[in-house]
Amino acid sequence: EAEVAQSPRYKITEKSQAVAFWCDPISGHATLYWYRQILGQGPELLVQFQDESVVDDSQLPKDRFSAERLKGVDSTLKIQPAELGDSAMYLCASSSSDRGYEKLFFGSGTQLSVL
Amino acid sequence: KQEVTQIPAALSVPEGENLVLNCSFTDSAIYNLQWFRQDPGKGLTSLLLIQSSQREQTSGRLNASLDKSSGRSTLYIAASQPGDSATYLCAVPFRNNNDMRFGAGTRLTVKP
What angle (nearest 5°) sits at the alpha carbon of residue B97, between those of residues A40 and A65? Predict the structure, then answer.
């Protein structure tokens, strides 16, 4: 069964360093999402792509976070500089539709710890 | 604004019990509602998707119902097993896209 691939699985970094996460969605899924999940809470959307275009990044802290999906396939989420409060699980998801009709498929996530 | 609440936050039951997890949402104008399972330190797995025109969906021992007018959904798990231990989250789309709004989840423990 096709899966959403994410790497790395875990990332430990020091405050003020740069970190990057990678996601490869299910083949053919045009819609890609990055979510952040703080322990004990549900995921919250950071950014949504439709192909290579950003559909919604209203919740993305743009002073330190950036996301790209240059060829409309895989995607990278970057944080620079990392802060202690960025420690969380970063989840990538994909869907065949951007209209809320289809299931979301999530990757295994990247657990980020900022020291 | 769409807010999603899940009750209880945690639940512990002995193996074999039938149980119900609850989800409520404030804006009833939704396309669908999804139930997810999350194991510790892992991503989310979609369990059931109920379209707004449907009242319920079933998959094996799982049954999810949706009452849009009252802003509620329930996930029924029959004959619970230790392998069902996980956090169960419900989510609804916010606005006309897949910006899913999640509840905080119910952490289920099934004791052998």
Answer: 55
Handedness of CA A56, B72, B80, B49 (dihedral sign): negative
**CB-based contact A56:B97 (threshold 8 Å):** yes
Which of A4, A104, A109 comes nearest B42 by C-beta? A109
CA torsion A103-B31-A96-A105 (nearest 10°) is -20
Q: What string of pLDDT tens digits covers the 115 residues of chain A?
A: 679 999 999 999 999 999 999 999 999 999 999 999 999 999 999 999 999 999 889 899 999 999 999 888 999 999 999 999 999 999 999 988 756 567 889 999 999 999 9
In angstroms, the separation between the Cα of residue A71 and the nearest Cα of chain B is 21
